[in-house]
Write a structure and sequence with these properties.
Blueprint lengths: L5 H62 L1
Length: about 70
């Protein structure tokens, strides 16, 4: 019996290429999401620093009022 398994291997290669394409697409999406989060973080960090500085200034004013 002479069976041709070349056809089956070709199907596996197509599936592998499709899987690679999907994996690449997912990786690009994750990378874009990570880049977007990274860009957003400095703004959030700056807001947190500003809030902390404002609170520290209020505490400083309160302690100055207590001394007077």
């Amino acid at each position: 019996m002479g069976l041709c398994f070349g056809c089956f291997d070709g199907g596996n290669k197509r599936m592998t290429k499709e899987e690679e394409r999907l994996a690449s697409e997912e990786a690009r999406a994750r990378a874009a999401e990570a880049a977007q989060k990274k860009q957003e973080q400095p703004g959030e960090a700056k807001q947190a620093e500003t809030a902390e500085a404002a609170e520290a200034a209020k505490e400083g004013e309160n302690s100055n009022n207590d001394e007077a």
